[in-house]
Specification:
280 residues; mainly alpha; MetI-like fold; 12 helices; 0% strand
Length: 280
């Protein structure tokens, strides 16, 4: 055990995808944390005399149709992006993990009923189902995050169930059962801690996916509402200028791309570091 953690750290550091992903996410976290210091202007301040200005010394990425500084809005949008990912994945994990844990451990009809319900949810395109949920709940950033979290529940339930099915047959679980340990103790002390590795990887990848999907909902008018500095809503508001001032769309789109890429690279690196079958 003493050599296991350093070995995993070495594998993580040797992974180029992990290093680049960690660097991108670290930058995003720093930008979100120090947004009031880094942003040169208030992201909500409007000034019609300076609307649609090109990049300049005063406004490094230019201004939008209301004269708001694009760079400041992108910087504050990092905070919203991280909140989106954390809340959406948190909802999915909070409901998906217990369902997968119970289904995998107890099996039988309970497993069948839970997983068939998850299969029904998975049979719908996730974004389409999220649109339906937001339409029922009402548009808004919170409801968009809730919808993405709900449609992601089956993913985490299936990941946890697969891990439990593999672990519950291990020798140490059989030994604990033979020594008279309770089912609850086996479930939470033996199985759950050893089933977290694929869950951590999936959650890391899921944050990037949640950010992208909420941005898509905002783009169609079902997510964040103006004047909130959210990247998807920024693209939606300025898409009419895509042919005349394309940077209005390109800059927030580039921010979304880098963020999703960072979480994907980080997730791949964590998977490589935690997978005992990989010796690099």
């Amino acid at each position: 055990m003493d050599s296991l953690i350093p070995d995993r750290i070495r594998r993580f550091v040797r992974s180029r995808s992990a290093v680049w992903g960690g660097l991108l996410i670290s930058i995003l976290l720093a930008v979100a944390l120090f947004a009031p210091v880094l942003a040169p202007h208030n992201p909500l301040d409007q000034s019609f005399p300076r609307q649609l200005q090109p990049p300049s010394a005063g406004f490094w990425l230019g201004t939008d149709e209301f004269g708001r500084d694009i760079l400041s809005r992108i910087i504050f949008g990092a905070r919203i992006a991280l909140g989106i990912g954390a809340l959406a994945v948190g909802i999915a994990v909070a409901f998906g993990v217990p369902l997968g844990l119970v289904a995998g451990y107890f099996g039988g009809r309970l497993d069948t009923s839970i997983m068939r319900t998850m299969d029904v949810v998975l049979s719908f395109p996730s974004l389409l189902l999220a649109i339906v949920i937001v339409t029922v709940l009402g548009s808004g950033l919170i409801n968009a995050q809730l919808a993405i979290g709900i449609v992601s529940i089956p993913i985490y339930a299936r990941v946890m169930r697969a891990s439990v099915l593999s672990i519950r047959e291990q020798d140490y679980v059989t030994a604990s059962r033979a020594l008279g340990e309770s089912g609850t103790g086996i479930l939470f002390r033996r199985i759950l801690p050893n089933a977290l590795t694929p869950l951590i990887v999936q959650a890391t990848l899921g944050i990037g996916g949640a950010i992208l999907e909420v941005a898509a909902l905002s783009f169609v008018g079902l997510g964040a509402e103006p004047p909130l500095a959210e990247w998807g809503s920024m693209i939606a508001a300025d898409r009419k200028f895509v042919t005349t001032v394309p940077t209005l769309v390109l800059f927030p789109g580039f921010a979304i791309t880098l963020t999703v890429l960072g979480f994907n690279l980080l997730g791949d690196g964590i998977r490589d570091a935690l997978d005992p079958r990989l010796n690099r």
